[in-house]
């Protein structure tokens, strides 16, 4: 697992990047409920084959060249079978997307999420897992992985252990769907545990955070809702860069507690 950046360093980094590189956003002008409905309706169009392919024209390119105002931030898996803009039928400038194997929330991903949620002001954050996730499957089956992959998938291990405790009699293949869902909640927990800015925006309802799982065969997104222990996660202090905490409760350790 990569070392999480301290709050001070992360905040300075995001501020510097936002002010010097990216076009500043002033928010999308929609509520979290409206953003949520747009995502659900877009997926329904995708599943039914009635996609609108919105905001892909020449005029849209001109508009977004002047600045971006997405209505949702999504962190999803890098899997080639999960084209996030397409499965929600959204176009250029609509979605601020972070993709990483296993949809984990570690330092780089959290910094990117903070840019979408805090700087661009998206009112909705979706943590999107998917069925048959290779990264989750590798952890469930204790696959022999090499290079930098072990440091990536160790973020998934607490979720897999949680799924095993709830379903001790399941075979690895049967356990994967439960581990996929646990991993979505684990990512939400990791994000809120390590990001003051996202947690504060969630606490005062400037952003709504929901989990979801995509089905590769049907194209349907199942909405999991908020983390079931959202209230306690919003109250917990930020974990520091060395993996310690400042009064962090022990009941958050060892995986998702949903």
How would you characterize this protein structure?
The protein is α/β, with parallel strands linked by helices. The chain has one domain (7-239, 246-252): 3-Layer(aba) Sandwich (Beta-carbonic Anhydrase, Chain A). The chain is 45% helix and 11% strand. The chain has 11 helices and 5 strands, in the order H-H-H-E-H-E-H-E-H-H-H-H-H-E-E-H. The chain has helices at 7-20, 32-48, 58-65, 84-87, 107-119, 134-140, 149-153, 157-166, 172-194, 196-203, 230-235, and strands at 72-76, 95-99, 124-130, 208-214, 221-225. The chain has a 5-stranded mixed β-sheet, with helices on both faces. The chain starts with 6 loop residues before the first helix and ends in a 23-residue tail after the last helix. The relative contact order is 0.16. Keywords: Metal-binding, Signal, Zinc. Belongs to the beta-class carbonic anhydrase family. GO terms for molecular function: carbonate dehydratase activity; zinc ion binding. It comes from Eiseniibacteriota bacterium.
Number of β-strand runs: 5
- Roughly how much helix do the residues carry, as a percent range? 40-55%
Separation of the first and last Cα atoms: 22 Å
Q: What name does the CATH topology carry?
A: Beta-carbonic Anhydrase, Chain A
Share of residues in strands: 5-15%
Report the average pLDDT across residues.
87
Question: Can you tell me the residue ranges where pLDDT is under 50 for at least 5 consecutive residues?
Answer: 5-25, 246-255
What is the assigned CATH homologous superfamily?
Answer: Carbonic anhydrase
CATH class: Alpha Beta
Overall body shape? globular
Q: What value does the Rg take, in angstroms?
A: 18 Å
Q: Please give the domain count.
A: 1
Could you give a short account of the major beta sheet? 5 strands, mixed
The CATH architecture assignment turns out to be: 3-Layer(aba) Sandwich
- H/E order of the elements? HHHEHEHEHHHHHEEH
Oligomer: single chain
Number of helices: 11
The class by helix and strand makeup works out as alpha/beta
């Amino acid at each position: 697992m990569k070392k999480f950046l301290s709050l001070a360093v992360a905040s300075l980094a995001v501020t510097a990047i936002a002010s010097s590189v990216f076009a500043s956003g002033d928010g999308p002008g929609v509520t979290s409920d409206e953003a949520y409905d747009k995502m659900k309706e877009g997926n329904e169009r995708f599943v039914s084959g009635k996609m609108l392919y919105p905001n892909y024209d020449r005029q849209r390119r001109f508009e977004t060249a002047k600045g971006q105002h997405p209505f949702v931030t999504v962190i999803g898996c890098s899997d080639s079978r999960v084209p996030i803009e397409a499965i929600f039928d959204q176009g250029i400038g609509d979605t601020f997307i972070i993709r990483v194997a296993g949809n984990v929330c570690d330092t780089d991903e959290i910094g990117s999420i903070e840019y979408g949620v805090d700087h661009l002001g998206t009112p909705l954050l979706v943590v999107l897992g998917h069925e048959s996730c290779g990264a989750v499957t590798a952890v469930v089956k204790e696959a022999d992985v090499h290079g930098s992959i072990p440091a990536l998938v160790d973020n998934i291990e607490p979720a897999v252990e949680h799924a095993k405790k709830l379903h001790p009699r399941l075979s690895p293949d049967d356990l994967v769907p439960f581990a996929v869902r646990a991993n979505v909640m684990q990512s939400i927990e990791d994000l809120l545990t390590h990001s003051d800015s996202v947690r504060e925006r969630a606490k005062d309802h400037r952003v709504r955070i929901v989990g979801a799982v995509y089905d590769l065969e049907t194209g349907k997104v199942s909405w999991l809702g908020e983390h079931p222990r959202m209230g306690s996660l919003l109250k917990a202090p930020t974990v520091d860069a060395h993996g310690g905490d400042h009064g962090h409760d022990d009941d958050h350790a060892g995986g998702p507690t949903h």
